[in-house]
Specification:
single chain; 166 residues; mainly alpha
């Protein structure tokens, strides 16, 4: 993942849908996004987009003090003394989020390779989603879900506009 190309509009669209489907607990939607991502070979870009989109939402919906407190909370999660799942997944997700927030792509790579070795990639990504869901519970509301859908539609339009210019 260290040498991964940047995430594009399609990756951000898939990430927004993944967030929305995750909050709605729509297993079929999540599976469709995972299948599309795997078919395109864009898993690292989807993770980058998932982290980036949630970072953007937190920056937009939280005060500066709230962001600092959330950062401290996630930092503490990254030091959990655990030896079994799901605790390991929680700690790993926190480490990935911290690595992303400090632009440490090697840290993300280390954690994702560890998750892959333990066959826990899905659980790790799900825990990343759950951590952000806990940080932004208002996105579970009807208005929050509509707000997420609006992001999906904007990203879809941008994705097709860019593809049309190629």
């Amino acid at each position: 993942m260290v040498a991964v190309d940047g995430a594009g509009f399609g990756d951000y669209r898939r990430a927004a849908l993944l967030i929305r489907y995750g909050r709605l607990e729509e297993a079929a939607g999540i599976a469709a996004i995972v299948a599309e991502t795997n078919e395109l070979g864009r898993s690292p870009q989807l993770l980058k987009a998932l982290l980036g989109l949630n970072r953007s939402f937190i920056g937009r919906l939280r005060t500066e003090e709230g962001v600092e407190l959330l950062g401290d909370y996630i930092e503490n999660m990254s030091h959990l003394d655990v030896t079994e799942p799901p605790g390991i997944d929680i700690r790993r997700a926190a480490r990935i989020i911290n690595s992303y927030m400090s632009d440490d792509m090697a840290g993300i790579d280390t954690e994702m390779h560890a998750a892959a070795r333990e066959s826990r990639v899905t659980e790790t990504v799900r825990q990343i989603m759950d951590t952000f869901e806990a940080a932004l519970p208002e996105l579970n509301s009807e208005v929050g879900l509509q707000w997420l859908q609006a992001h999906v539609e904007v990203l879809l339009a941008q994705e097709h506009d860019i593809e049309g210019q190629s």
